[in-house]
Amino acid sequence: MVEQSPGRRALISGIGTALATAAIAIRPTRAHAQAAAFQPARHPQDAWLNELPGRHRVIIDCSTATGAGEGLLYASNLFVANKAAYQIEQGDLAIVVCMRHLATVFAYNDAMWAKYGTAFSAIAQFTDPKTKAVPTTNLYNSADYGLTLTNFGNTIGAVVQKGTQFAVCDMATTFIAGHVATEMKTDPKALHDELVANLIPNSHLVSAGVIATTRAQEYGYSLLTTL
What we know:
This protein is an alpha/beta fold. About 50% of the residues lie in helices and about 10% in strands.
């Protein structure tokens, strides 16, 4: 064997020292990355999401007229299936239906539909499937439509009785109020306040439906979406 030269021995020794130094440098970097794991910020406006009782959390995102009905159906299905398959009672489920975008008009009660149904119908592109006319009540709170509506007869009142909560988009409400106020030549702020005062039961007015949907996931809610 040929004896290594002093220069070669020095080169090998230098490489070994460099690798050892790099390994030491990597360790705190990895530890820092673990310590800096993402933690979502908390805001008082979202606190109600964390106050709902339940061992399972679900938020159902509704943005269209058909989606609003599907949201009610999905909420009902969650209660029924959890009871049948897991013996989980209603109080152990935290279910929130988010009414945003075009679905927002279905977060208003019958009194608002009686007054502003024509505008709501135009905004949501929704008519009574039986009469083809503009609804004068919130049809998703009627049990008379069965399979002709996408809620399949699961009404707002029925899912509320089981504990369903609603997140209602204020951004959409402001837009709707402005649109209706322009047509009726009235004050948009007053109309907005009237809509807010006439929300369906168990409603929580949120700054925007997209905010509520994303914040809920930060609080451990699973997301269901509708068409």
